[in-house]
Task: structure prediction
Amino acid sequence: MKIALFGASGGTGTLLTNRCFASGHQVSALLRSPDIFPLREKVDVIYGDACDPHAVLETVRGADVVLSALGARSLGKEDVLERGVPNIVAAMQQTGVHRIIALGSAGALPDSLKKQPFYRRWIVQKILYNTLLRWPVASQIAQYATLSATDLDWTIVMPPMLRNTTARGRYRIDGEALPRNGSSISREDVADFMMQQLTDSQWIRKGVYISL
Ligand SMILES: NC(=O)c1ccc[n+]([C@@H]2O[C@H](COP(=O)([O-])OP(=O)(O)OC[C@H]3O[C@@H](n4cnc5c(N)ncnc54)[C@H](OP(=O)(O)O)[C@@H]3O)[C@@H](O)[C@H]2O)c1
Result:
């Protein structure tokens, strides 16, 4: 497949890039700093920013599928999902690309914590989502709202905290809410699950929670 990849230089994006190569896919990657991206020789580089509609259009043009692991580089207000995801949607609609698999977050929907014990729900909501993770959560809410309002074949993969640990290969998947006491997952497992979605229609037009 020809894959348009957003966030290729990030923690999960780098794993996705390598998995695309391993599966024989061709990758066009939008990069803000291609010079320091170690895999730049292997991808079709589009130099630019997700907030630039023209750069996004060039990245998506000719793709079969869009993969996104875009996200803010800090816990502050960065707006990359608020500004970049509408550009991706517009580019897909303009070029007739239908399928997008995006990395989201367990904090994107109000019901995400409904399977957690009361004390854990309180801590995560009050201490994390409402304070420390306020801006990333707001961005993920925006990404979910943007993609789910389209008629694209979207899938939003919604993990809790991402870790740079090796893949377990076994994790819980839930279409309703974050699995009980689910608090983290390896980026490798997330990348593997996202790659599976390239050929699996089960979670089309759905958000799906994954967690250890
Ligand atoms: N960290 C967690 O525990 C956690 C938990 C759940 C969900 N998530 C979500 O998962 C996603 C990926 O997380 P991650 O930690 O793997 O990613 P990451 O390492 O933070 O990388 C983010 C990627 O987005 C790119 N990016 C940011 N702003 C951009 C812009 N304006 N234009 C183009 N590219 C831009 C970065 O490019 P540069 O290299 O140019 O900066 C980088 O490739 C994010 O949406 C995050 O919110 C994270």
